[in-house]
Amino acid sequence: MHSDIQEYNEAQAPGDRAICRALAEQIERGLPEAESKVWHAHPVWFLEGNPIVGYSKLKGCVRLLFWSGRSFEEPGLEPEGKFQAAEARYSSADEVDADQLQRWLAESRDVQWDYKNLVRRKGRLERLK
């Protein structure tokens, strides 16, 4: 895990820190080939330069975001924003279902929209896989 992500996690309040650690551990386990870094002030994992999954501290919860999550078959994510992103929100580390998260991570490898080239395509998303 990138040291900036560890610093991000450690900077959180104890309950949120536990959620962030649980998410990071599961993401690292499920996407070991992904590049990780703090991007736009939040931990994000990338495959071939394309953002796949990340999390951020919101008021009252930690949000897990899959950039292509609306296209997943595995249930449990809610639509977020105007593109293909979907999220899950956690207010306790006990709410993180490792099995479900691993299924989302497996699907995230196969279901991807091309966010890497979104600006070049003037806001038009194309499906990669």
Topology:
Blueprint: H1 3-10, H2 14-30, E1 35-39, E2 42-47, E3 50-58, E4 61-66, E5 78-79, E6 86-90, H3 98-110
Helix pairs in contact: 1-2, 2-3
Notes on the protein architecture:
The chain has 129 residues and is of the alpha+beta class. The protein has a single domain (3-110), classed as Aspartate Aminotransferase, domain 1, CATH 3.90.1150.200. Helices cover 29% and strands 26% of the residues. It contains three helices and six strands; from the N terminus they run ααββββββα. The chain has helices spanning 3-10, 14-30, 98-110; strands at 35-39, 42-47, 50-58, 61-66, 78-79, 86-90. A six-stranded antiparallel sheet has the order 1-2-3-4-6-5, covered by helices on one side. The longest helix has 17 residues, at 14-30. It starts with a helix and ends in a 19-residue tail after the last helix. The mean pLDDT is 92.
